[in-house]
Amino acid sequence: MPGDPADLIGKTAAYMAARGPRIEAALEAAMPHCCALPGPLHEAMRYSLFAGGKRIRPLVVLASAEAVGGDPDPVLPVACAVELIHTYSLIHDDLPSMDDSALRRGRPTCHVAFGDALAILAGDALHALAFELLARTAGRAGAEPTLRAICEIAAAIGTQGMVGGQVLDLLAEGRPSLARFGAWPTDHKMGVYSIHRWKTAALIRACVCSGAILAGATPEQLADLTECGEHLGLAFQIVDDILDETGDSGVLGKDTHRDAAGDKLTFPFAFGLERSRAIAQEETTLAIAALAGWGASADVLRGMAHMLLVREG
Description:
Helix content: 55-70%
Radius of gyration: 19 Å
Structural class: mainly alpha
CATH topology: Farnesyl Diphosphate Synthase
Order of helices and strands: HHHHEEHHHHHHHHHHHH
Largest sheet: 2 strands, antiparallel
CATH superfamily: Farnesyl Diphosphate Synthase
Distance between the termini: 29 Å
Number of helices: 16
CATH class: Mainly Alpha
Number of strands: 2
Strand content: under 5%
Shape: globular
């Protein structure tokens, strides 16, 4: 039995409270100090990284490693790396040439606080530091699994992952047609799946897989976790779309209703709010079902799926 959702959420909340400080300490240790040259760049990097994010992606890396019986300590650099990648993507997404957002995590976005040029460079530097951390993991987890994890993450953020998804998202603004995608479906209900699978779900899937790879997952375990991560990532983005329509900006820490104002192709646009909620539930159910043959070691991942579905921020 998958367990009671409330119990699983409680178990996951306790896990996050226990692992969160370890992630914060590791991030602090990895980041250059503001006193080191070039100080303004390091200040901008730290401003965005330590703005109070929930650290979902690094927590998923650790939880997947522990789900297959691994020690979380050797995978901490990878957990930090994916958070650096996520933060760099937020800095760039917020730029005037992209989503033009003024608020992120309850305070001015990086380009508002430091200017466009320094924000771009801060994102670039976080991206570079992420791969330095990934490479260093070989000393803890071994060269072969580290290379596999690096390939998994790199593919998830490239042209057919996070960056490619952002491009499709930009191309879909205005919503008259998705024909500009070439071979991509012209039906917007298919197109929104394509955008979100690349833009958001790919990196979350890579977080689930990379932790497990480094912890010695079997091919069968990795197949289950890959399926779980794909559905978990898609459910996460659908809920994000819904919250942009219905959420409180004070709780979310960012401006709401920006998707509609920017004429974005989202699940609420394609399916309506009620159906979008149902699809998010369906994807969550599929994520949990992928772990049907697993015992209590996967409870945190199950609880994470339930928690992300009902989140308000």
